[in-house]
Amino acid sequence: MIWTELSSAPPLGTVVPGGDLQSGARAVTVTTDAGDFPLLLVMTDDGIKGFVNACPHQFLPLDYRSPHLMSHDGTKLMCSAHGAIFDARTGDGVGGHGLGCSLSPVPLHRTDGQLVIGSRTP
Ligand code: FES
After folding, report:
1. What's the pLDDT band for 120 if we cut at 50, 70, 90?
2. Which pLDDT tens digit goes with each residue over 16-67?
3. Residue 43 CB contacts under 8 Å (≥ 6 apart), including other chains
4. CATH superfamily of 3-112
5. What pLDDT, on the 0 to 100 scale, is given for residue 1?
6. Tens of pLDDT along 80-91?
7. Residues within 6 Å of ligand 1 by CB
8. Domain boundaries in the chain?
9. Which of 44, 98, 105, 113 could pair with 93 in a Cys bridge, judged by C-beta atoms 3.0 to 4.6 Å apart?
10. How far is the CA of 64 from the centre of ligand 1 (A)?
11. Strand ranges, E, within 35-75
12. Residue 84 alpha carbon to ligand 1 centre in Å
């Protein structure tokens, strides 16, 4: 699934709530005229990453049972529903029900101090 295929996909340039994330992972909802888009923000050693907050195992939000998704070393995410494990930087499945699938990345960048949807334009 590509994030833009969701009917609730926000337009490029939409400001994302929760952009002050300093560590760990946070589920947020981006609400626009298109609807409510489930976004997972993840702070990594490579900066903040975004993924559609839908686990490819059964498409439940990763925080379905708990908001605590990040491993202690900050390198992996674990879905709270059935334990699928994903690389925090790439979203690739690396364990459990995550093997063979991946989270859908959502491009993010900062502009004027705000976190927004979309890649930075040159
Ligand atoms: S829905 Fe995430 S592991 Fe089952």
Report:
1. confident
2. 999 899 999 999 999 999 999 999 999 999 999 999 999 999 999 999 999 9
3. 21, 22, 23, 24, 25, 49, 74
4. Rieske [2Fe-2S] iron-sulphur domain (2.102.10.10)
5. 84
6. 999 999 999 999
7. 55, 57-58, 60, 79, 81-84, 97
8. 3-112
9. 98
10. 9
11. 35-44, 47-52
12. 6
**Average pLDDT rounded to a whole number, residues 64-77:** 97
> Are 53 and 36 in contact, with CB atoms under 8 Å apart?
no
Q: Considering only CA atoms, which residue is closest to atom 1 of ligand 1? A: 58
**Structure tokens, 10:** 């926000």
- Per the structure block, which two tokens stand in for 8? 């609730």
Angular region, 65: left φ>0, alpha ψ -120 to 50, beta rest: alpha
Residue with tokens 């101090």: 113
